């Protein structure tokens, strides 16, 4: 039978109290000496029996009040597997900022190929590094919020805590990163959507209101005026519908801009599908298409719907600005480098100006989309503002060129989300060439630190 130190101790204490009670009663004369001796003998006998069963006083004194079992190797493996599966990035930081361990989410988030390296080379945020230093000194710093704009916008809350365990006699710190970009973007998206919609819808709504009042008044019985006004009202209603659709599309792209796509898409196939759809529109304007694409698929890592929106917006703009009898060329190709793709060594148009609207944030081979028109071209002064929302080069000069002014803004944000690049090259009277690239499937790699920090919108 297993001895219980706690039980043995209780028996010894109880027997002692009983013997003391008998002695006091005997001294007071309440119990006869013979009876007292018999009672003490009985208590001693019982104590001896339980003493043998429960343990000796030395064993009782040496036994700990509470025991803690050390974690087994199986428990360590289970804990490591749980941390590895967490959706938030978690890193174990040692002295000097060395990364001792990082879970899968942390490796993906920071672009780590394996454990090791220094946290200062990956997170260049002084407040976060100060919090890590404080945790390594044994303090518990408050959470730190930081934002980054290169290579794309992100908002992160960092939690840093010291660990009680030590590695090789050195203290460790745990860094947990919680990505709040989606929440911040959702808040801003709602505000931007309301601001843009209220501003841009004011003009067509005012126009509709004026025509309705006219039709209710003196033009009520004027069939010619009524037909003309109804046609204008239909055009304004169609403009509002396209504006709302483009705003919603842009908001959805911006919402997930910090999350790179993962599916594989054949650029040649989606280019053919888009051009087949736009051919009737081009034919109405007397414009033809030419698709230059290799016979083998050009498969990139991307979002099919968004890449379709890129080709559709660029091709649609080319149709609008090309004169009758012109040819719009859509080229699909493979490039060895994203930088060479959007800024080739030689000019695509003689004496043209060139603007890099989105600098690539990945390296390796890329799939290239290049759309060339034979339109009036674009002055250098307009190039820096081309991808701004609602910006029109010829605002108010071409009523037949229907558009919302959001097409190139959508292309810009799609290129950013795909970690690709976007550039434009143009010269007055010689047309324009728009180029977008995205990493080929299986070849994308994070850009070097210097290239990630490159400023967008560079002109030459």
N-C termini distance? 91 Å
Number of strands: 16
Describe the strand arrangement of the main beta sheet, using strand numbers: 7-9-12-14-13-10-16
Q: What share of the residues does DSSP label as strand, in percent?
A: 15-25%
For the report, how would you describe the main beta sheet? 7 strands, mixed
Taking pLDDT < 50 over at least 5 consecutive residues as the criterion, the unreliable ranges are 55-70, 395-400, 446-456
Overall 3D form: elongated
Mean pLDDT: 78
Strand/helix succession: HHHHEEHHEEEHHEHEEHEHEEEHEEEHE
Work out the radius of gyration: 38 Å
Helix content: 40-55%
* Main structural class: alpha+beta
Number of helices: 13
Quick recap of the structure?
This protein is α+β, with helices and mostly antiparallel strands. It has helices at 5-27, 33-54, 57-62, 73-85, 104-110, 126-136, 181-216, 223-255, 267-284, 304-321, 338-342, 407-417, 449-452; strands at residues 90-93, 99-102, 144-148, 154-167, 170-179, 264-266, 288-292, 299-301, 327-335, 353-358, 362-363, 366-372, 421-426, 432-439, 445-446, 458-459. It contains 13 helices and 16 strands.
């Amino acid at each position: 039978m297993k001895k219980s130190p706690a039980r043995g101790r209780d028996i010894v204490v109880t027997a002692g109290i009983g013997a003391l009670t008998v002695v006091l009663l005997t001294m007071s004369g309440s119990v006869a000496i013979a009876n007292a001796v018999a009672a003490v003998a009985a208590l001693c006998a019982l104590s001896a029996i339980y003493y043998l069963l429960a343990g000796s006083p030395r064993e009782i004194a040496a036994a700990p009040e509470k025991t803690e079992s050390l974690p087994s190797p199986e428990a360590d493996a289970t804990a490591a597997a749980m941390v590895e599966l967490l959706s938030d990035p978690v890193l174990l930081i040692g002295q000097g900022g060395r990364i001792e361990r990082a879970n899968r989410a942390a490796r993906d988030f920071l672009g780590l190929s394996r454990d090791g390296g220094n946290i200062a080379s990956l997170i260049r945020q002084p407040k976060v590094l100060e919090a890590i230093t404080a945790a390594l000194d044994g303090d518990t710093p408050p959470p730190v919020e930081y934002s980054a704009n290169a290579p794309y916008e992100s908002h992160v809350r960092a939690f840093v805590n010291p660990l009680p365990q030590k590695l090789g006699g050195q203290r460790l710190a745990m860094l947990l990163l919680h990505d709040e970009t989606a929440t911040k973007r959702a808040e801003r998206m709602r505000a931007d959507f309301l601001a843009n919609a209220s501003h841009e819808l004011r003009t067509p709504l005012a126009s509709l209101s004026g025509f309705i009042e006219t039709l209710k008044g003196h033009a009520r019985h004027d069939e010619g005026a009524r037909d003309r006004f109804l046609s204008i009202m239909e055009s304004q209603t169609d403009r509002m519908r396209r504006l709302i659709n483009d705003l919603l599309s842009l908001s959805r792209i911006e919402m997930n801009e910090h999350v790179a796509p993962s599916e594989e898409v054949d650029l040649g196939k989606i280019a053919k599908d888009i051009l087949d759809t736009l051919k009737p529109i081009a034919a109405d304007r007397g414009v033809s298409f030419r698709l230059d694409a290799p016979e083998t698929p050009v498969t990139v890592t991307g979002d099919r719907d968004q890449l379709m929106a890129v080709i559709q917006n660029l091709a649609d703009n080319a149709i609008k600005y090309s004169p009758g009898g012109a040819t719009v060329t859509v080229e699909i190709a493979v490039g060895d480098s994203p930088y060479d793709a959007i800024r080739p060594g030689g000019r695509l148009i003689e004496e043209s100006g060139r603007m890099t609207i989105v600098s690539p944030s990945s390296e390796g081979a890329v799939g290239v989309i290049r759309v060339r028109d034979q339109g009036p071209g674009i002055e250098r002064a307009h190039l820096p503002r081309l991808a701004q929302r609602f910006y029109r080069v010829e605002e108010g000069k071409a009523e037949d060129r229907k558009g919302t002014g959001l097409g190139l803004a959508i292309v810009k944000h799609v290129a950013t989300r795909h970690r690709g690049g976007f550039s434009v090259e143009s010269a007055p009277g010689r047309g324009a060439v728009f180029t977008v690239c995205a990493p080929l499937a299986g070849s994308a790699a994070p850009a070097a630190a210097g290239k990630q920090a490159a400023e967008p919108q560079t002109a030459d």
